[in-house]
Predict the structure.
Amino acid sequence: MIRPAALLHTTLALLLTALPAFAQSSAEAEMRFSTGVMHLREGRVDLALEEFKKAVKEDGKNPYFQKGLGLAYSAKRDWKPAIVAFRRALELNPYYVDVRNDLAAALLSSGDREAGKRELLTAYSDPTNPTAEVSARNLGQAYYEEKNYAQALNWYRTSVGRNKDYSDGYLGLADTLAATGQNEEAVVQLQAAVTEIPTDTALQLALGQALLRAGRYGEARSRLEDVVRKDPAGPLGRQAAEQLKSVPK
């Protein structure tokens, strides 16, 4: 499954940058939309949904409002109306390529996997796509879920090639390598990732886990302990602490 939290963070950031672009909408509609974004970002999904609905009622021809509505439905895992809203956003603005990532995620989650992958491929192939690495990573994830590891590796490598600062591409690549028994290669890729993004704790954790699978226990312990130090009370730190219990002395 495409990670909803990761996508939501990316797509909300892009949505916020669009605010000046719809000056033609009424002040009331813009206020509703901005409030909806705030609620969604802070996890108040029902409140966000109501605000986006009101924004769309004020101006049903604004693609950003439709995208916000789709995101709120997606956060509730209500895929049918989410798909309708995303498709409406694309009808209103066929060049709003970021919506294809959202539409693809909703289609994949609803069970229409072929349609979802087609949307991702269309998004990736669009020269105006500002986040082609995300589309490639999501295609990798879709194929990984289907155990089509050759295609998953291809798309994860493509994601990393497009943006070496995008950690999810490395994480998916390492997961796929591990699934195919290529533990040492997973270590190599994650070491490269940590060099590129040294402050990313999730990559540090993944590297520790990969070292453990590869039987490199001393290095694994060092990496996992470092994660615990960096995130002692957080989920990554707790996961690393739990993982440390299985590292041989």
About this structure: Residues 27-41 form the longest helix (15 residues).
